[in-house]
């Protein structure tokens, strides 16, 4: 972030911390972690690079699944398994909660993933997700750009290339989420549309101001 963009960021978004959206998602998850006896699955847990998504010691047991082998050494998990959301390596009705932080946009077959989540949830369990809106400018631009561009942008934002994955946006609209949830036997009880500072447009002051005007 150059000096002018940093100055604009401090003036236009005072009080915004880095990873503010993950911090907000953490609060939503904690709202549902009412009992220390709860068993929780982090779907798409990865290597554990987002400190806000660390609930180890808060719930009874935190499991994680990800295709990335680094999930097995994720420090935020009690147990990490290499696997895919389309075929979760856990028995029926194992978890009280499943959450997914920026995962839905990467799914090739979200219907299968939602069905698997429904299978491993106990009666009354909850599935919490944070994901971009397909119609926001960021996904609209991203869908026009090659994956290398996404890696370059995220590198500018401080994220390693190996932690930037291809995006498909097949479960990223209000309608799609309701449709896919219904097909899996899940009920959507709450959805929030949240706008924050334009972090993907930190490239120049011009792009940053465009994002501010948009929001």
Name its key features:
215 residues; Rossmann fold; alpha/beta; five-stranded parallel β-sheet; globular
Blueprint (SSEs and pairs):
Blueprint: H1 3-12, H2 20-32, E1 39-43, E2 61-66, E3 79-82, E4 95-101, H3 110-120, E5 121-130, H4 137-142, H5 147-156, H6 174-184, H7 205-214
Parallel strand pairs: 1-2, 1-4, 2-3, 4-5
Helix pairs in contact: 1-7, 3-6
Q: Helical region count?
A: 7
Strand order of the largest sheet: 3-2-1-4-5
Could you name the CATH class of the domain at 17-131 and 173-195?
Alpha Beta
The pLDDT mean sits at 89
Beta content comes to 5-15%
User: Which structural category fits the helices and strands?
Assistant: alpha/beta
* CATH superfamily label of the domain at 17-131 and 173-195: Vaccinia Virus protein VP39
Number of strands: 5
Low-confidence stretches: none
Topology order in helix (H) and strand (E) letters: HHEEEEHEHHHH
* Most strands sheet: 5 strands, parallel
The CATH architecture term of the domain at 17-131 and 173-195 is 3-Layer(aba) Sandwich
Shape, principal axes of CA atoms:
globular
Distance between the termini: 20 Å
Oligomer: single chain
Helix content: 25-40%
CATH fold naming of the domain at 17-131 and 173-195: Rossmann fold
CA-based gyration radius: 18 Å
């Amino acid at each position: 972030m150059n000096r002018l963009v940093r100055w604009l960021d401090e003036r236009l978004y005072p009080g915004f911390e880095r990873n503010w959206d993950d911090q907000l998602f953490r609060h939503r998850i904690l709202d549902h972690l009412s009992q220390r006896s709860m068993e929780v699955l982090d779907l798409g847990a990865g290597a554990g690079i987002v400190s806000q998504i660390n609930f180890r010691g808060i719930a009874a047991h935190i499991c994680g699944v990800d295709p990335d082998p680094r999930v097995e050494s994720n420090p935020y998990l009690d147990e990490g398994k290499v696997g895919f959301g389309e075929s979760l390596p856990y028995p029926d009705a194992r978890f009280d909660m499943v959450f997914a932080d920026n995962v839905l946009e990467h799914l090739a077959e979200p219907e299968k993933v939602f069905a698997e989540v429904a299978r491993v949830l106990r009666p009354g369990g909850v599935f919490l997700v944070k994901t971009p809106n397909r119609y926001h400018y960021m996904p609209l631009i991203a869908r026009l750009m090659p994956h290398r561009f996404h890696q370059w942008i995220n590198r500018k934002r401080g994220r390693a290339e190996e932690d930037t994955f291809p995006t498909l946006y097949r479960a990223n609209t209000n309608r799609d989420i309701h449709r896919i949830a219904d097909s899996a036997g899940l009920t959507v009880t709450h959805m929030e549309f949240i706008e924050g500072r334009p972090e993907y447009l930190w490239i120049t002051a011009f792009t940053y101001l465009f994002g501010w005007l948009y929001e």
